[in-house]
Amino acid sequence: MSEIENVVRTRLRSLRNTLGLSLDDLAERTHLSPSTISRIETGKRTISLDVLLPLAAALQVDLDALLSAHTDDDVVIRPTATSTAQRTTWLLSRPDGTTTAIKIRLEPTPTPPPQQVHPGHDWFFVTTGRVQLLLGERVIIIEAGEAAEFATMTPHAVCAINDPAELIMIFDGDGQRAHIHHESAIRSRKKHRQTSNDTNDHPLAEPPTATSRPPGLCGERCLWRLKTELPPRTPPATASH
Questions:
Q1: What architecture is domain 81-182?
Q2: What is the CATH code for 3-67?
Q3: In what order do the strands lie in the sheet with 156-160?
Q4: Where are the domains of the chain?
């Protein structure tokens, strides 16, 4: 018997016990006999798809997860910080998971961030400081030791109040795309803008073109044209004696 077969049999038995199902209960849900399920769990019957499919459906588990060979040899996650001007983020879960957990340190800002909308739900727990949750027209203050959960199809934003605040946030795949990928896009745009500014400062640099310059550089382009198109200054004539 292969190692993965042993793992699958153990998972089937553990899932059944976790759900509080007897062999008769599971047999009724799968239209398999209790003896067939017992032989599968104890290794006395070959595992095949014709029994795995109804068992996975009755136990509310995805077939890929049931057959996964991932052994979690390294269960320790070593998060690294990713920073922007307003926040520092640590990814606390593996990037290929079904849910994402992150730690966020928010810096107070003069104005709240723009609200955003995406499918799914967000959940966060404030560990230190105080945060302001903007939820549509509502303004909700959340203290350290308190948590919040809300539907993210409502426009929402979170910001620190007066001092830095830290929170743990958990969300699904939709939330990951909205939060993690959104921040990555912001960092990419900032890096591109900085690179463009450095290029404009070079004395021999060409002006940014309409197709390559990022938004917000019209002022630099207009200033460059003004400097290059003005006629050279003529020094004032000195009076002869």
A1: Sandwich (2.60)
A2: 1.10.260.40
A3: 138-142, 131-135, 156-160
A4: 3-67, 81-182
Cα(241)–Cα(222) distance, rounded to whole angstroms?
Answer: 44
Q: What is the pTM (predicted TM-score) of this model?
A: 0.50
216 φ/ψ sector (left φ>0, alpha ψ -120 to 50, else beta) = left
Helix (H, G, I), strand (E, B) or coil at 167: strand
Using one digit for the tens of pLDDT, what is the confidence trace for 176-198?
A: 444 544 454 444 555 555 655 55
Q: Quick one: which of 157, 155, 172 has its CA closest to 121?
A: 172
Instruction: List the end-to-end C-alpha distance of the chain, in Å, as a whole number.
Output: 113
211-232 exposure pattern, b = at least 16 Cβ within 10 A, e = fewer: eebeeebeebeeebeeeeeeee
Is-contact 130 140, C-beta < 8 A?
A: no
What token pair was written down for 63?
């077939």
CB 60 within 8 A of CB 19: yes
Number of Cβ within 10 Å of residue 188's Cβ equals 10
What are the pLDDT digits (tens) for 193-213?
Answer: 565 555 555 544 444 444 444
